[in-house]
Amino acid sequence: MPTRTINQKEIDFDDEGFMTNHLDWDLEIAKVIAAEDGISELTDRHIIVLEFMRKEFEEKGSGPTIRRLTKESGVPTKELYALFPSGPAKKAARIAGIKKPVGCI
User: 3-6 and 9-12: which strand pairing?
Assistant: First the structure.
């Protein structure tokens, strides 16, 4: 389990790059992870998705599937893929500081 220092915080990650403790997350950490994933700026639309992912994780213990994400976040599928290219549910979960959603490859 790799530990990294981001913005002067020690953060533990699993072998796939997901934070192991979602309570360590903050928006500044999200910006660093997003930049590493090729997203240079987190817009208001990104933040809507990240907050929805975190809320679902805190309520249910897992991030939403892509289907739930598109139906309940208010962000359509096409836009999700534009915001989080190459697997929006997985990439958004990583940036949101939660575990990989069940069913993501």
Answer: antiparallel
